[in-house]
Amino acid sequence: MSDSPGILPCQTIDDLIAGGGLLAEGGFALNQVQPASLDLRLGPRAWRVRASFLPRQGGTVAQRIADVAMHELDLTGGGAVLERGCVYIAPIQERLALPPDVAGRANPKSSTGRLDVFVRLLTDGQPAFDDIAAGYAGPMYLEIAPQTFSVLARAGSRLNQLRLRRGEPAVLGIKTVGVDLSGEIAGFRARRHAGIVDLDLENGHDPADFWEPLKARRGELLLDPGEFYILASKDEIAIPVLQAAEMTPIDPAVGEFRVHYAGFFDPGFGTAEAGGQGSRGVLEVRSHETPFLLEDGQAVARLCFESLTQRPSRLYGAGGSHYQRQGLRLSKHFSAW
Length: 337
Fold this sequence. Notes:
Distance between the termini: 44 Å
CATH class of the largest domain: Mainly Beta
Structural class: mainly beta
Strand content: 35-45%
CATH architecture of the largest domain: Distorted Sandwich
CATH superfamily of the largest domain: Deoxyuridine triphosphatase (dUTPase)
Number of domains: 2
Number of strands: 26
Helix content: under 10%
Number of helices: 3
Largest sheet: 9 strands, antiparallel
């Protein structure tokens, strides 16, 4: 195990599991550990809450749930429908007992972001979403807020992922990401009054029931306020095997829209070594208060590359992936367009 600063690779995550730094009732699934992240699973229940919140200073998430809960949902068996426009809190099956020099950050999984399901991690005493303090020991909870589609969730559903780091990883570069509007289909716009998406059903939904294909006019695409879009990056994206990356929104001054709810890219994504050459980044885009005219090639996000503590023992896509070598692609829940 390397003690150098950086993002922890899969073998170090495995070591933390073996040493009790990461815990899960019933153990971990074989494919839960990714090259530089850990998939997190929903627990057996969730609460519909009247508002989002953060725990009070020195307080716990459970204490705040008691203040804002409206009703409880059972996620075991057939699961429960989480309705669009509502906010839910669910405990995560995994618990943490991190070493004092290891901190964490969470992000939605790509499939979650592509469904416009807004999720954020909460931990006891932490005054910010998605950030986990070094040495944290305790439970984790997930705020879930479906924005466009109502979704069917179950205990064990994986909506977000955890990236662990030792110290402050070196920032090795920042790449500006432009949008590609040159294809026959430039993107997809979500249909607002579609049916329920089963979060655990892959290739089981007709995309035409949920999405409207879009064509650019004169190299431009008009984003309507409050609508959700799936677009693709102009350039190929590749994450070197000794690095991990996070995609972040461009400066809001550049455009009135939010890009990319799901920001983690694991080592090996888009590389020839991992069989992914030619991969594009898929962009989840939501326009805000005003219509916005997006141009082909316009910068919409930034990709920040950080160092790993050591080379991961497996690369992105090694066990199969829905998104390696992707172009413009909807989430894995939908059959091919």
